[in-house]
Design goal:
The complex is a heterodimer of chains A (about 550) and B (about 70). Chain A is of the alpha/beta class and about 550 residues long. Among the domains of chain A are: about 220 residues, FAD/NAD(P)-binding domain; about 100 residues, Glutaredoxin, CATH 3.40.30.10. Chain A is built from 14 helices and 25 strands. In chain A, strands 1, 2, 8, 9, 10, 11, 17 and 18 form an eight-stranded mixed beta sheet that branches. An eight-stranded mixed beta sheet of chain A has the order 6-5-13-14-15-12-16-19. Chain B has three helices and no strands. The chains are: A alpha/beta (about 550), B mainly alpha (about 70). The interface between A and B is small, with 13 and 9 residues.
Amino acid sequence: MKTYANPVYAWKRAPERDGPAHRRPVIVVGAGPVGLAAAIDLAQRGIPVVVLDEDDTVSVGSRAICYAKRALEILDRLGCGERVVQKGVEWKVGRVFFGHEQVYAFDLLPGSGHRRPAFVNLQQYHLEECLVDRLAELPAAEVRWRHKVVGVMPRDNHVLLRVATPDGDYELSCEWLIACDGARSPVRRMLGLEAEGQMFHDRFLIADIHMKSDFPAERWFWFDPPFHPGQSALLHRQADDVWRIDFQLGWDADPDLERTPERILPRLHAMLGADAEFDIEWASVYTFQCRRMQRFRHGRVLFAGDAAHVVSPFGARGANSGFQDADNLAWKLELVLAGRAPERLLDTYDAERIPAADENILHSTRATDFITPKSAVSRTFRDAVLSLAKDHTFARRLVNSGRLSLPHVYRLSPLNTPDREGETFAGTMVPGAPAVDAPVEGTGAPWLLDHLHGGFTLLVFGDTVPPAAAALAEDPSPCRVVQVDGNPANPNSLLRDRQGLLHERYDGRPGTCYLLRPDQHVCARWRSFDAGQVRAAIRRATCND
Amino acid sequence: MATLNTESNMTAPDDFYEGLIALHRDLTESESALVNAKLILLLANHIGDPEVIAAAMDAAREDLGAPGVRP
């Protein structure tokens, strides 16, 4: 590749080869985006974590390139958001073409007052490098490159691993194992577990090209374009003047042949013009599937990311949902390891992330059915939608080139406290929803989410916080109180909502309280403060009820 | 809650039918299929009510068995 050289991370001999093996609280298998995010989250919480990876570098090829607003907010909490956004390419406009014509355009994040954009495009290798560098800053974390897990032996109160390295094998044990080892998850296979679902009969060519171009940073999707008749194509800008191009090839395409420059170059010149100047950085031919495991928690082994569920790429729901898995899991593991919550809190990882996976699979399956119609009538309806979309706005909402990733709302989570009878709230901040960001003023960062510090937070709107609220910080399951507008003499953290967006987005009125979990999801809300009800809601959100 | 009206609801049913057939004049089979699909989409959006649309889908397929359960 012209624009990127993969780093080679040094292999180190395991200390267990020369001395006793201490049981580790958490081991993560797989140093991809999800495994690294989980490890950073745990290490930031002070939990020693070892990451084992069979390779010695980051992703080869750009792979997952679209990181959604919620994933960026999670990366902010992990200390990597700014670097990812600086390096990446922001975009929010998408255009859909049918044949020769644009049928419509969309703008994903109209309006201001959001710290992060709807999406940032960044090659997976850049993202992983940010995560690896961040992890290296955390003394509680350690990545072991070229340490391949070759045996997984679950025991009653721990998991024993057999690890192969260039100078021999060793054993390692942990209280909890997080398997983030990808769609073909060797851990899953070694445990005899399966991910069931559907495979789609289509093939796609994915090509990264290096090109100086004036094309805007937008997502362009073509159905049946003149340069690639009968199929679809996608163009996306990445960092370093690298462009992602996808060509739908059909099931009968020969993957080995289609990967060769002799086949790729004519396709690219047909699309970009006969005299376009570019270099091919990386190319791959892929098929895809929508599958998930029946359960993500198997005793002391927890599956996250592609190891637990895979979706088609349309909608950027793979890595983005994997980050949300890690986000959901880390604080729960922290509480269980500290003895502050029972093990059954980890069952709620299943209760919350399985519906999230199903939502992603549903959207991605629907997009795939639209892009790759499976029958003549399905294709006829697809083409009918596209030909209506230019002049009839209703049809634009039926066009499905991927419903782009939005975070899942844990509406039915057992950790939610339902709203009190008679209390109503406008807006989207229902129990289970991830806290939406808003600009704030006061001491510290100018965005709300930066004031939610990894534990439980009570966000209180109004002039004065009752003295009883301060005591919540001293509880066994402590809760910080963050007050929005009010008396500057108040000892609680004080934010000012000068633009009014925080009040608007949370339907905040004097007295309104939101209880936010360590992963920033709302778990309870009230129109007035009651210390007993806040404590009960925290007990419920930690399975201590 | 609206239900699917399967009583006669047209002032001039013969005119409608003639128009429907005329709509397809000079079209190939695949063009006709496309026009039919567009017509369904336009009408379904105009109706909007998902229960009415689902009832119409069920009625249209009634004598062929539900999807996945051919008689």
